[in-house]
Amino acid sequence: MSADVQAKIDSLVKSNKIMVFMKGSKLMPQCGFSNTAVQILNSLGAPFETFDVLSDYEVRQGIKDYSNWPTIPQIYINGEFVGGSDILIELYQKGELQEMVAVALAS
């Protein structure tokens, strides 16, 4: 990954409390997994930002290296990688995601 791509990803992750790298946007998800992530975050009423990896091939590949995670979507809360939609579902069902979001928004 180039230094420019790394800097772009760093900036997005660090400047947003909740950042989702996904296919499509929160208004128009382009895959089921991305839609699941958006629906979960929407259900919490949490403000979050998204980046459409379909619009930037270098970021689409770079985010996988950045997190060492092979799939999209990727969710970051308070600058830390949380996981994909499967992990989000699991955390949500345990009530842990709600706590993570509350802490992130309070900080």
From TrEMBL:
The keyword Iron applies. It comes from the Bacteria. Pfam families: Glutaredoxin. Keywords: 2Fe-2S, Iron, Iron-sulfur, Metal-binding, Redox-active center. Gene3D superfamilies: Glutaredoxin (3.40.30.10). [2Fe-2S] cluster binds at residue 31. The keyword Iron-sulfur applies. NCBIfam families: Grx4 family monothiol glutaredoxin. PANTHER family: GLUTAREDOXIN FAMILY MEMBER (PTHR10293), GLUTAREDOXIN-RELATED PROTEIN 5, MITOCHONDRIAL (PTHR10293:SF16). This is Glutaredoxin. It comes from Pseudocalidococcus azoricus BACA0444. The lineage of its organism: Bacteria, Bacillati, Cyanobacteriota, Cyanophyceae, Acaryochloridales. The gene is grxD.
